[in-house]
Design a protein that fits this description.
Helices cover 21% and strands 24% of the residues. It is α/β, with parallel strands linked by helices. The strands form three sheets. Strands 7-8-9-10-11-17-18 form a seven-stranded mixed beta sheet, covered by helices on one side. Strands 1-2-3-4-5-6 form a six-stranded mixed beta sheet, with no helix packed on it. Helix 7 links the parallel strand 17 and strand 18.
Length: 335
């Protein structure tokens, strides 16, 4: 890469002496978003979008050295022009644009193209080289519209509520949970949040994000309070003793992996909704073509298959990079 090199600590820009989403301790880290595989503890100084500020402090500690900036607000670092641009993945998610002596590289982090009504919409940034995820870089991944998915979620909840059954829906604490909350029909019944999600909501709201105000699940509330309600919980709560207070209940998982037959059964949920905060096959191709990049570096996901497609069909040079980013893996890595 003209401006970046892959080191044992992560993607490094020597000219500016900065790393993008490093996985080992470094002096200066530029963070694309606050998910745990991109924003790790132990950096001497962090730079991120201002919407990531309170969540990063919640997760990494209030005492971290953190500078935040707006989108499209360039900084000069040792002759390198650095700016952040919307990635559309979760609130505060950013693409990192680096420009030096006429060469432009963009590190996308994770991204999606559909407007989720919560995150700043993805912005295609012209560049010579583009570093892209390809979590769902196979043709089988094609998302239905968000409106269709949330209509299905609300109908599922409504059916359960009519039988006084609690609905428990699992999604990452950061990004997915807030997206679910934003689009629920709260006329159906009360909504509660797992403590990890409630804490994340408070951090995002203190940063200025507009979210419905819902209570957290507590031991003090009687079991009857949850009858017909919808509970938003992280995947880590699935199958734990914490769930007993909601019985009888039905469970749902929101993930792009629900696109695969059998994924729901393997995760022991009653139903799966195909809702991802990552671009699908067509979204990845559209985003990459919009950058007009001459060379694309693929960091995580179906790198071999997707890279071969880019080279053979789109005639774009593609290179696989071995990183420690994980994408949407169904655990609580992303929230």
């Amino acid at each position: 890469m003209s401006l970046l090199e892959l080191t044992p600590a992560g993607l490094y820009c020597k000219q500016a002496d900065i790393y993008v989403d490093p996985w080992r301790s470094v002096n200066r880290a530029v963070i694309t978003h606050a998910h745990a595989d991109h924003s790790k503890w132990g950096m001497k100084h962090y730079l991120a979008h201002h919407m990531s500020r309170e969540v990063m402090k919640l997760r990494l500690g209030n005492d971290i050295s953190l500078e935040t900036v707006d989108y499209n607000s360039p900084k000069q670092i040792n002759g390198v022009k650095l700016s952040l641009h919307p990635a559309g993945h979760i609130p505060g998610s950013s693409q990192v644009r680096l420009e030096y002596k006429g060469q432009v590289v963009v590190v996308s982090g994770d991204y999606k193209l559909e407007d989720d009504g919560l995150s700043t919409v993805f912005e295609a940034v012209k560049c010579h080289e583009f570093v892209s995820e390809c979590t769902f870089g196979l043709p089988i991944y094609k998302w239905e519209s968000q409106g269709y998915i949330f209509n299905s979620i609300n109908n599922w909840w409504k059916r359960n509520a009519s039988k006084e059954i609690t609905s428990v829906i699992f999604g990452y604490s950061l990004g997915k949970a807030q997206r679910i909350l934003k689009h629920l029909d709260q006329n159906i019944g009360p909504v509660y949040a797992h403590g990890a999600i409630w804490n994340t909501n408070q951090a995002l709201k203190s940063n200025g994000l507009n979210l419905p105000d819902i209570p957290r699940v507590t031991q003090e509330l009687p079991k009857s309070a949850y009858k017909g309600a919808l509970i938003i919980a992280p995947p880590s709560a699935m199958g734990t003793a914490w769930m007993k207070k909601f019985s009888p209940y039905r469970t749902a998982i929101c993930s792009g992996w629900m696109n695969i037959r059998g994924a729901r059964r393997r995760r022991s949920a009653d139903i799966g909704f195909v809702l991802s905060d990552h671009a699908d096959w067509e979204g990845l191709i559209k985003a990459i073509k919009a950058t007009e990049a001459e060379k694309v570096y693929l960091t995580h996901g179906s790198t071999a298959v997707f890279g071969r497609y880019l080279e053979e069909v789109e005639k774009i040079q593609a290179v696989e990079l071995e990183t420690l980013f994980e994408g949407e893996n169904g655990s609580e890595t992303e929230g």
